[in-house]
């Protein structure tokens, strides 16, 4: 019935192999990485011998194996797959394989489910590995209590998914950050011991590990072998890379993660179960761009992935802030239509007593003071111009100075002893309560219906601290339930309004993960529109997300968040390689500035089909003061690149720079696109090819461009250049 039960099991898809040895009491992970080809049963048996561990001195008499559910019973001294207890006992799991189910996916992916039984902890475990057509491994487990009804509950401490990586993976990269500087990489050697990142903010946060990568030394965008993981969950998380002196079976280290649980958060009575978040694992032998290819392809394969061109957005926040004057907003709307905007989003300040950020959150009715006749006049004006309409919400938060908090103080997610310090004058609404959940659903649903809202900017501006639910029996942990309730709320809104698009915003880019992306259509990468900061933020955000999901807006010349001043072309080019928009008071611009926005809007519409479907590529450069990144059509026929200078360099000229991602078998017409103006050079004349490309008369082979490159002009700081390559 289960022919895989006593075999070496080989999963293959997307140029990746995963091999399990299911011939023992508990399956072992033998390989995750490069495709091994079509191996016979005999070859797989031989592979199991090759990939197996040694029996070391001063170690268990049976060689330590790395199983699908590693515990100390297998000789594993690292972080276990599960921790927990039943009233202080049953802390030494003894897990054995019960049965195996092989799954063939309709799209060409493949998978396998191991059913495990823990006779000590009295648990049944369903552990599913899915190898997608993109070559990603998605792992999820369900733990169910099989105890008798009168037995003590099982207090689950942690459930983690771990995968082995080989010895040559000696370097680790993950991310940290803060508000307006999200996804800042940090890099170092992979050493013995545990490298663990625990996220305890109730959301991934601006300092999220985001994508934990280990790889061959000095791996870059275009070179090196990489193994990576991502925890697809919007609540608390644990990420780890771990190396022990004795290794992990035949491998050197492990990589993985899962939900970070607090004591008492998951308590399983008889028959109850817990299902972990999906942990996604990716492998690449062509650097970080190769890993991004897999991640982007996964997201683009979603049935709900945006199919229509991503509209050019105007968001009102940095234009008007809380000044919701209908005349000003009407003028702004007219100018938006004039320059080519396709969607207007009304940001914070439209509801309740929300005249500043200290009041009104939770009162999701249109303000009678700011909008005595409702939003219809503005919405009708937007639609009369042929544009769609979006509205800002922050459903999970509440101000104490609000009708909702005064009426329902018990709805605040806080201890019975009283609320702690506020953050941005706000607290967290306990949306896992059926009554508060119903309140939000009713109010958001009615507004979406009344105004036929096309788009919601869904914000979440503070961490969840002391996040406990007040119950008659006492305060119980609330982050897991809060996260599940968020998913359920968005899911129900999408059922009621299938065409509604939602953007995940969390004080900028504080909640970007594949769990929230299963339910949303865009993320706000950062509250910072400063193009210098944005270049780095978007570069690293793009490791996981394709450009069409990453919101990036052009702000005023003087940045709202850094006070840095940047030229318009630099701001425009930065936002071009994303889901673009404007966050700028167009009513205060000159006629020349408006004309430049119009030119940029046309350029975005010309290239968004390429940018939002192509491969994102990055050059590996020794000089951190410059970047070369672009979008290349999947068939290599067309490409657009940005050559960006962040600061001055010691060298007088940049020299030859390889153009990544082009088809070496094709010839390309090279064109410098100066639609947005001429870049400022930090030299007398540009290289010889530069003038020819500006005139549109340069043709170069893809082989030369990708292996030799172009001598790039030296730009002044905060300048950027657009290069278009068209196969001829």
From TrEMBL:
It catalyses: Hydrolysis of terminal, non-reducing alpha-D-galactose residues in alpha-D-galactosides, including galactose oligosaccharides, galactomannans and galactolipids. One of its GO terms (biological process) is carbohydrate catabolic process. This is alpha-galactosidase. It is an enzyme of class 3 (hydrolase). Gene3D superfamilies: Aldolase class I, alpha-galactosidase from lactobacil brevis. PANTHER family: ALPHA-GALACTOSIDASE C-RELATED, GLYCOSIDASE FAMILY 31. Keywords: Glycosidase, Hydrolase. InterPro entries: Aldolase_TIM, Alpga-gal_N_sf, Alpha-glycosidase_related, GH, Glyco_hydro_27/36_CS, Glyco_hydro_36, Glyco_hydro_36_N. GO terms for molecular function: alpha-galactosidase activity. Residues 26-269 form the Glycosyl hydrolase family 36 N-terminal domain. It comes from Lacisediminihabitans changchengi. It holds the Pfam family Melibiase. The lineage of its organism: Bacteria, Bacillati, Actinomycetota, Actinomycetes, Micrococcales. Its EC number is 3.2.1.22.
């Amino acid at each position: 019935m289960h022919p895989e039960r006593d075999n070496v099991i080989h999963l293959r898809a997307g140029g990746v192999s995963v091999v399990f040895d299911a011939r023992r009491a508990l399956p072992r992970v033998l390989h995750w990485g490069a495709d091994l080809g079509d191996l016979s049963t005999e070859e797989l048996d031989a592979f199991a011998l090759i990939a197996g561990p040694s029996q070391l001195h001063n170690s268990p008499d049976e060689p330590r194996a790395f199983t699908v559910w590693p515990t100390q019973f297998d000789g594993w001294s690292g972080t276990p797959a599960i921790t927990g207890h039943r009233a202080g006992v049953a802390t030494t799991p003894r897990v054995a394989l019960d049965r195996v189910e092989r799954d063939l996916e309709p799209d060409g992916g493949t998978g396998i489910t191991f059913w495990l039984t823990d006779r000590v902890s009295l648990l049944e475990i369903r552990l599913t590995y899915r190898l997608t057509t993109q070559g990603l491994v998605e792992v999820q487990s369900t733990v169910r209590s099989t105890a008798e009804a009168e037995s003590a509950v099982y207090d689950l401490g942690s459930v983690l998914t771990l995968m082995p990586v080989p010895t040559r993976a000696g370097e680790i990269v993950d991310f940290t950050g803060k508000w307006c500087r999200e996804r800042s990489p940090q890099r170092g050697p992979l050493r013995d011991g545990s490298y663990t990142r625990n996220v305890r903010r109730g959301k991934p946060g601006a300092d999220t590990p985001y994508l934990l990568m280990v790889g061959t030394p000095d791996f870059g965008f275009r070179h090196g072998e990489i193994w990576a993981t991502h925890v697809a969950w919007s609540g608390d998380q644990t990420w780890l890379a771990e190396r022990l002196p004795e290794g992990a079976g035949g491998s050197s280290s492990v990589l993985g993660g899962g939900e970070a649980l607090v004591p008492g958060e998951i308590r399983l009575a008889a028959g109850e179960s817990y299902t972990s978040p999906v942990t996604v694992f990716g492998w690449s032998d062509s650097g970080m761009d190769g890993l991004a290819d897999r991640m982007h392809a996964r997201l683009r394969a979603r049935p709900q992935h945006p199919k229509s061109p991503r509209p050019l957005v105007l968001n009102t926040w940095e234009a008007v802030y809380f000044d919701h004057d209908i005349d000003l907003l009407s003028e702004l709307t007219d100018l938006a239509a004039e320059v080519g905007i396709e969607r207007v989003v009304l940001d914070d300040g439209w509801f309740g007593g929300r005249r500043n950020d200290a009041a009104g959150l939770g009162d999701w009715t249109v303000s009678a003071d700011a909008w005595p006749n409702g939003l219809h006049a503005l919405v009708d004006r937007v639609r009369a111009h042929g544009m769609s309409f979006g509205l800002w919400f922050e459903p999970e938060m509440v101000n104490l100075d609000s009708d909702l908090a005064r009426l329902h103080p018990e709805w605040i997610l806080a201890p019975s002893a009283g609320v702690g310090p506020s953050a941005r004058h706000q607290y967290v609404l306990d949306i896992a309560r059926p009554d508060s959940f119903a309140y939000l659903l009713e109010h958001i649903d009615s507004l979406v219906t009344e105004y036929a809202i096309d788009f919601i900017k869904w914000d979440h501006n503070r961490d969840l601290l002391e996040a406990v639910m007040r119950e008659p029996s006492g305060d119980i942990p609330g982050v897991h339930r809060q996260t599940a309730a968020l998913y359920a709320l968005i899911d129900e809104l999408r059922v009621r309004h299938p065409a509604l698009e939602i953007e995940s915003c969390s004080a900028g880019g504080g909640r970007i993960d594949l769990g929230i992306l299963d339910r949303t259509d865009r993320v706000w990468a950062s509250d910072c529109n400063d193009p210098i900061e944005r270049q780095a933020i978007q570069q690293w955000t793009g490791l996981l997300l394709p450009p069409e999901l990453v919101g990036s807006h052009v702000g005023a010349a003087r940045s709202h968040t850094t006070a840095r001043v940047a030229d318009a072309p630099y701001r425009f080019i930065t936002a071009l390689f994303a889901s673009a928009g404007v966050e700028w008071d167009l009513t205060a611009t000159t006629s020349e500035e408006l004309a430049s926005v119009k030119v940029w809007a046309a350029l975005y519409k010309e290239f968004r089909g390429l940018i939002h479907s192509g491969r994102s590529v990055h050059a590996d450069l020794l000089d951190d003061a410059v970047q070369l990144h672009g979008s290349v059509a999947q068939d290599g026929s067309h490409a657009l690149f940005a050559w960006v200078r962040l600061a001055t360099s010691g060298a007088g000229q940049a020299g030859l720079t390889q153009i990544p991602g082009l088809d070496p078998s094709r010839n390309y017409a090279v064109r410098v696109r100066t639609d947005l103006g001429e870049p400022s050079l930090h030299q007398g004349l540009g290289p010889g090819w530069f003038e020819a490309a500006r005139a549109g008369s340069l043709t170069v082979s893809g082989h030369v461009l990708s292996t030799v490159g172009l001598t790039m002009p030296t730009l002044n700081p905060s300048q950027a250049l657009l290069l278009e390559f068209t196969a001829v």
